[in-house]
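Hi there. Long-time user, first ticket. I'm pasting a complex I've been working with (about 230 residues overall). I'd like to know whether the download I got is complete or cut off, because the file seemed smaller than I expected. Thanks.
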Amino acid sequence: SQQGEEDPQALSIQEGENATMNCSYKTSINNLQWYRQNSGRGLVHLILIRSNEREKHSGRLRVTLDTSKKSSSLLITASRAADTASYFCATAPATYNQGGKLIFGQGTELSVKP
Amino acid sequence: DGGITQSPKYLFRKEGQNVTLSCEQNLNHDAMYWYRQDPGQGLRLIYYSQIVNDFQKGDIAEGYSVSREKKESFPLTVTSAQKNPTAFYLCASSRVLREEELYEQYFGPGTRLTVT
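Hi, the file is complete. Here it is re-exported in full:
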């Protein structure tokens, strides 16, 4: 079952602007991850935030996690045309013995116009 | 180069035929996964394996089968019982689950299967 819901489904911005994507989930998690997918390609891991963390940075990426609201956001600052891709959040259920399962959201399609 | 390979990139089959998708990794990862992605949607887990000779059903295992005879390989067979097999199939791997740690998943480039 899909527990991640992402918002917006599509986002179009100009190069240099910031892009914010949101993810909501339903059950307790061990961690939350963000992945990027270029059209017709595999996914690439961007960043992982643990359930006891509130914010994490990696280069131009900033991820926040609010476990009380069961939500996360991904901010890409100073966007570039090369950031154009689909972005997915994925949650790792807190229940042990899930075998490494991740539950993916529907994704946000980001278009950055030069 | 370490990574995951999937072959072929595009695959065409007639309805009623079984087809096997290849997934090989040289990352020395213990866990491997198969996902299905339909247009404009997220990934849905088909099967996963934490160790050689063992695998578990994911959320949409019906009509699919897998084997894990070697650590490096996790082939997926799409059988004729799968009602809507046309999709983009992604294989992934990760380091072994240790206590409550869950490692990031590394994905292959995918195989686009079209069944007519």
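A couple of notes from our side: Chain B has no helices and eleven strands. The first strand of chain B starts at residue 4 and ends at 7.
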